[in-house]
Amino acid sequence: MHYAWLNALPHDIPATLRRSLEVAAFEADAFFAPRQKQVSFSVEPGLGEAYRLEENKDGFHVTGGESGVLYGAYALIRAQQTGGALPQGEQRPHYPLRMLNCWDNMDGSIERGYAGRSLWFEEDAFQYDPRRIRQLGRMLASCGVNVLCVNNVNVIPPAQHLIDTLLPDLAAFADILRPFGVRLMVSVDFAMPMQDGLSTADPLDAAVQAWWADRAKEIWTAIPDLAGFLVKADSEHRPGPATYGRNHAQGANMLARAIAPYGGQVIWRAFVYNCLQDWRDTETDRPCAAFALYQPMDGQFDDNVILQVKNGPYDFQVREPVSPLFYAMPRTRLALEFQLAQEYTGHQIDIYAMPPLWREVLDAIGPDTPRAIAAVSNLGRDENWTGHPFAQLNLYAYGRFAWEPDMEPEAVICEWIGLTYGDLTADQRDALAQLLLQSRETYEKYTAPLGLCWMVNPAGHYGPSPYGYEFQSWGTYNRADRDAVGIDRTAAGTGYADQYPPEIAARYADPHSCPDNLLLFFHRLPYDFVMQDGRTLIQRIYDDHFEGYDRTAAMAETLRVLPLPEQDRAVVLERMERQLRNAREWRDVINTFFRRFSGAEDDKGRKIYK
Ligand code: GCV
Question: Distance, CA 312 to ligand 1 centroid (Å)?
Answer without folding.
Answer: 13
